[in-house]
Amino acid sequence: MSVLERVASxxxxxxxxxxxxxxxxxxxxxxxxFGRRRLLRRLPQKPVLCLLEVGCxxxxxxxxxxxxxxxxxxxxxxVSRHMLDRAFYAVRRYIQRIFLVQKDYLSELLRQKEPLxxxxxxxxxxxxxxxxxxxLARAYSDLKIGGYIAVVDFHDTRIGWFRRWMRLNHVRMEGxxxxxLQTLFSAQHCEVRQAYGGxxxxxxxxxxxxxx
Length: 212
Prior knowledge:
Elements: H1 3-28, H2 36-41, E1 50-54, H3 60-68, E2 73-78, H4 81-90, E3 98-102, E4 116-122, H5 132-142, E5 143-156, H6 160-168, H7 177-184, E6 186-195, E7 200-208
Parallel strand pairs: 1-2, 1-4, 2-3, 4-5
Antiparallel strand pairs: 5-7, 6-7
Helix pairs in contact: 1-4, 5-7
């Protein structure tokens, strides 16, 4: 399978997966997508920034960022039309400064004209499967010097059946995301926390793109 065929196949898989899950996403994900609000509180506190959220889903984060930072320009992208329909409804009050796009992040059509201040991944990097390194390289390229990457995501689990079950739901929990982030970006904040007594661990990371 070629790269383009692989990308198209993954996009189709995500479309099918979220066609139903979009309806119940916000009602069901609160009990295991930990750390999202905590990560948002640790975003750079600057008056005017341009932030891109990759895999913005139903707009959970964008709505809160728009409310907390009234001068920020916000961009949300997602491959799922069904999730973006929910996001559009969630952020309708702020739609004049939030731009929503249905595309794959690695599409050449999404090349930013101007470098970004912040790239946010909230439980989306672990769903890039074998394209995680490409997604991080794109984020690095999209950021301006001194810009920030902010990530909250699944880290790892010692429980084999749980790891396999998460893979069936298109999530990788191999513990390899955090080391990649630490290699590319200068860590400004990093923590690994347990969920449900150690069933799995998740992490929060904010890193800065340095000049070197």
